[in-house]
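[step 3/7] inverse_fold.run input=structure_tokens len=142
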């Protein structure tokens, strides 16, 4: 688990498995975010999740409830493919969470206070949603 701030936005990135073993760490990071922000804007990045169990889904639902009680906003980042995305689609969790495909899209939406697409619509990339990669000076492309 990684956690950091981007201005007023708090980012929680889950790496590896989100299950009964890792859920307590996620809950601690969420509670820290809730205690340190008055205007809570939270992104949960699941792009590096390799497995998600029912305990992980339950933790995300509880996270959403806590953020909503604080009048905050939570966006989940799900990659276009992968287990986390499949689970969100199969269980219709995409109907209950605001979802974006990339971390930059999620952070940008929170900074602009963009309400985003209707629930679940963030699962489909917009044609202009992915900017071209920027070459690294001295790298293979630059």
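[step 3/7] decode complete -> sequence:
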């Amino acid at each position: 688990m990684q956690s950091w701030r981007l201005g007023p936005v708090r980012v929680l990135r889950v790496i590896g498995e989100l299950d009964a073993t890792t859920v307590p760490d996620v809950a601690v990071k969420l509670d820290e975010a809730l205690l340190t922000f008055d205007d809570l804007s939270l992104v949960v990045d699941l792009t590096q999740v390799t497995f998600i169990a029912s305990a992980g889904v339950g933790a995300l639902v509880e996270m959403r409830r806590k953020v909503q009680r604080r009048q905050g906003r939570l966006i989940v980042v799900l990659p276009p493919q992968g287990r986390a995305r499949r689970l969100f689609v199969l269980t219709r969790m995409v109907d209950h969470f605001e979802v974006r495909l990339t971390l930059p899209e999620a952070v940008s939406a929170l900074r602009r206070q963009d309400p985003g697409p209707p629930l679940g619509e963030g699962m489909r990339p917009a044609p202009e949603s992915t900017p071209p990669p920027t070459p690294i000076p001295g790298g293979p492309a630059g």
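[step 4/7] annotate
The beta strands are 2-6, 9-18, 41-52, 73-77, 98-100.
The first helix runs from residue 23 to 36.
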